[in-house]
């Protein structure tokens, strides 16, 4: 899907962590870090998604070597089993997470990982940001597998990502639909996706009013099945923990009106509650039941019991906050996850393209971490059981549909000079912070 990547790039080499993991672990060690969160690529272990399709020994050796290096350097691995890189064979065979068949194959893959790496991994994460996978892959089509409904105009949207439910399909020939006639901006999860005058590729099919809910349902069932397997077969001997990493944003009412306060709660329910409520109560939020109706799948009694409480810990990926306004007229004749919550976001954002020097002097990133860590510290003092904090990210990286056009790392990657690593000011600040604690 390189045609959907903003700069037309791919992740074949990315930052070459595969070959430079020792160098990168040395950077972590030198900064005083004591843990490293990374994901295992399902396709790198089982190229065809199943044990019957054969194992990739090179991939298995790589993760064994990575874990050994982490162990030697005293860094604790936190390992994610699924960070959106589904084996293509399973997508081709039955549509991946659109089918309940995925549960058994995810279980088989996880079982292999527990057997192979579990003696050195004490913290497992089943899925990273299941919401983003559903939204990007099946609502907007910005992420793999790129499915969404045909474009539908509406007012606002659940996440304010623009005026269309599937922005990849838009033609840029209609000037009145474009900001400044040349630039159409949408906010896509944690990033701004900006397309300047170029037509985005057409969608490959989908239903943004049904498929996201099906995929979320199957992700929750797959997660719960893996947790059950780990608890029954591995926890006692390996003495590890297992959880899931969800994503959220804090939702702030745009006004003091009751309608906007209710809208903010609906926004929370449709992002965080969509996954957190089943994990804690065994069912989806009532707001979702009311607004989505029969399109929202139902758990059986047995499934509800399996999903409820299926975690030792919860990871929370947090990026920003949103102002939310009530938008009761967003519903359309063609239902979509975007319009279901009947809300609209208010946000203005700008971004530039700094030079290497400016990119390394990232005072804004230091302020971001300082402010958030200060509030994490306050939460701990107030009794919240926060056990750790992972900064995103160690290095600049290939950022999905944004390619290499954004830089989230605390260490700069020079893509034009052999992928050399350069510490940003935030990296130096983190090192000083860790040494002082």
Task: Tell me the strand order in the biggest sheet.
Answer: 1-2-3-6-7-8
What's the multimeric state? single chain
- Terminal CA distance reads 44 Å
How much helicity do the residues have? 25-40%
| Uncertain runs | 152-202, 348-354
Shape: globular
> What is the average per-residue confidence, as pLDDT, rounded to a whole number?
87
How much of the sequence is in beta strands?
15-25%
Tell me the series of helices and strands, N- to C-terminal.
HEHHEHHEHEEHHEHHHEEHHEEH
Radius of gyration: 22 Å
Number of strands: 10
Largest sheet: 6 strands, mixed
Sheet/helix structural class: alpha/beta
- Total helical elements: 14
Family: Belongs to the glycosyl hydrolase 1 family.
Protein name: Beta-glucosidase
Pfam families: Glyco_hydro_1
GO molecular function: beta-glucosidase activity
What does this structure look like?
The protein has 437 residues and is an alpha/beta fold. The protein has a domain at 1-32 and 356-437. It has 14 helices and ten strands. It has helices at 17-31, 42-45, 57-72, 88-94, 101-117, 130-138, 211-233, 235-238, 258-281, 286-292, 301-307, 356-360, 363-381, 425-436, and strands at residues 35-39, 76-82, 123-128, 183-188, 191-196, 241-253, 313-326, 343-346, 411-414, 420-423. The strands form three sheets. It has a six-stranded mixed beta sheet. Strands 4-5 form a two-stranded antiparallel ribbon. A two-stranded antiparallel sheet has the order 9-10. A hairpin with a 2-residue loop joins strand 4 (183-188) and strand 5 (191-196). The radius of gyration is 22 Å and the shape is globular. GO terms for molecular function: beta-glucosidase activity. InterPro entries: GH, Glyco_hydro_1. Keywords: Glycosidase, Hydrolase.
């Amino acid at each position: 899907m390189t045609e959907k990547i903003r700069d037309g790039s791919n992740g074949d080499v990315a930052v070459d962590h595969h070959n430079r993991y020792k160098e990168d672990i040395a950077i972590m060690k030198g900064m005083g870090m004591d843990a490293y969160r990374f994901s295992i690529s399902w396709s790198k272990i089982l190229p065809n998604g199943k044990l019957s399709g054969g194992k990739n020994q090179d991939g298995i050796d790589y993760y064994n070597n990575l874990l050994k290096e982490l162990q030697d350097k005293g860094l604790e691995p936190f390992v994610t089993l699924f960070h959106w890189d589904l084996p293509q064979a399973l997508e081709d065979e039955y549509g991946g997470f659109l089918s309940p068949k995925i549960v058994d194959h995810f279980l088989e893959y996880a079982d292999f990982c527990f057997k192979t790496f579990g003696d050195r991994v004490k913290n497992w994460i089943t899925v990273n940001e299941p919401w983003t996978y559903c939204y990007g892959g099946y609502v907007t089509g910005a992420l793999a597998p790129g499915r969404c409904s045909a474009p539908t105009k509406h007012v606002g949207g659940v996440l304010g990502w623009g005026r269309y439910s599937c922005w990849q399909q838009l033609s840029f020939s209609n000037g009145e639909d474009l900001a400044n006639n040349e630039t159409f901006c949408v906010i896509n999860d944690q990033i701004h996706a900006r397309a300047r005058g170029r037509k985005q590729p057409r969608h490959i099919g989908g239903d943004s009013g049904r498929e996201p809910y099906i995929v979320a349902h199957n992700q929750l069932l797959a997660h719960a099945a893996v947790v059950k397997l780990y608890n029954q077969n591995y926890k006692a001997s390996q003495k590890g923990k297992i959880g899931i990493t969800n994503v959220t944003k804090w939702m702030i009412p745009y006004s003091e009106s009751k309608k906007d306060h209710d809208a903010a709660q609906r926004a929370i329910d449709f992002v965080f509650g969509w996954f957190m409520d089943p994990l804690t109560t065994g069912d989806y939020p009532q707001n979702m039941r009311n607004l989505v109706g029969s399109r929202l799948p139902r758990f059986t009694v047995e499934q509800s019991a399996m999903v409820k409480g299926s975690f030792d810990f919860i990871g929370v990926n947090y990026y920003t906050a949103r102002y939310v306004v009530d938008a009761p007229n967003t519903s359309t004749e063609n239902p979509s996850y975007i319009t279901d919550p009947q809300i609209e976001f208010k946000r203005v954002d700008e971004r530039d393209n700094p030079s290497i020097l400016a990119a390394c002097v990232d005072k804004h990133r230091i302020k971001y971490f300082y402010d958030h860590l200060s509030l994490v510290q306050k939460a701990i003092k107030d009794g919240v059981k926060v056990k750790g904090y992972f900064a995103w990210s160690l290095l600049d990286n290939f950022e999905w549909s944004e390619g290499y056009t954004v830089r989230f790392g605390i260490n700069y990657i020079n893509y034009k000079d052999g992928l050399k690593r350069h510490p940003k000011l935030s990296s130096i600040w983190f090192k000083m912070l860790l040494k002082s604690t």
